[in-house]
Amino acid sequence: MTGKAQKEIIITGILVVVLISVSISTFSEVKKKKSAAKSPNISSAKRTTYSKPVQKYSKKDFSEIEKTKENLAKLEQESSNLKLKRDVFVHGSAVSEEEIAPSDLTLYGIIWDKDNPIAIINETIVKTGDKVGISTIKKIEQDCVIVNDGSRDYKLNLNLN
């Protein structure tokens, strides 16, 4: 065995001994902490209790709280009367069933995929075959969408402005 190999074996042996001693000391500390947590020595420990200071509120604070409650009630009432134009969680469907003419349709964007193109028309995500108002999406191309209102086709060009 060469001198280099002997040094490597000695260093490895020392590192193994150090690792074992560190593991044993860590394990014994954890064990001591667990046993101390299970059965604390109350007779030798000095008990200290802490209490939160009592917060005092003024009449102004209560009036602010009441104003906030009133504002919240107003907002809840206003929001209950709102009606959404479409359900954002449903692909390609509109909550309101108003009839939109093809001339009122605006093409906002196209996500081009040869097999499954998608378009954004009047803030609605649509694919071929979906309906927007009275129009059916006939074809989605890279730069335009062809819609049909039941009688004729209309071409919606992508507005890049």
Structure description:
The chain is α+β, with helices and mostly antiparallel strands and 161 residues long. Mean pLDDT is 78; it is low at 93-97. It has helices at 3-38, 59-80; strands spanning 107-111, 118-121, 124-126, 131-132, 135-140, 144-148, 153-157. Among the domains are: 1-33; 102-157, SH3 type barrels. A hairpin with a 2-residue loop joins strand 4 and strand 5 (135-140). It has two helices and seven strands. The radius of gyration is 37 Å and the shape is flat.
Salient structural properties:
single chain, 161 residues, alpha+beta, SH3 type barrels, four-stranded antiparallel beta sheet, 36% helix, 19% strand
Summarize the structure.
The chain is an alpha+beta fold and 161 residues long.
Task: Set out the fold topology.
Layout: H1 3-38, H2 59-80, E1 107-111, E2 118-121, E3 124-126, E4 131-132, E5 135-140, E6 144-148, E7 153-157
Antiparallel strand pairs: 1-2, 2-3, 4-5, 5-6, 6-7
Main sheet strand line-up: 4-5-6-7
Shape: flat
So what's the CATH class of the domain at 102-157? Mainly Beta
Strand content: 15-25%
**End-to-end distance, in Å?**
80 Å
Tell me the Rg in angstroms. Answer: 37 Å
